[in-house]
Amino acid sequence: MYEKLNEKMDVKSLFIKNKGYVRRDEIPDRTTYYQVLKMVKSGAVERIKPGVYHYSSHSPDYVMIDIDKIVHNAVLCLYSAWFFYELTVQIPQSFNLAIEKSRK
Q1: Residue 62: how many CA atoms within 13 Å on its side-chain side?
Q2: Res 16: pLDDT
């Protein structure tokens, strides 16, 4: 019982260390990865996309999420950037990102 509680705390601390998000390559071992998958099934962790997980109780205070966790080397485009840097009060309906032409 204590061991399971301790394992859950380790996974939670991993999410907290990474600001609520964890990518598959940031998970140290298979055991921890399987614990994350169990937490996804229980609803404590949300799968954003393959290999990117978000700890549900560690929600950000703002609308924007950490873009780099989901799309590496992406750049926010015009209206999304304005919102992110608080240059506008309008919340964009979608966030636009620019990526290299060779990536899809």
Answers
A1: 12
A2: 82
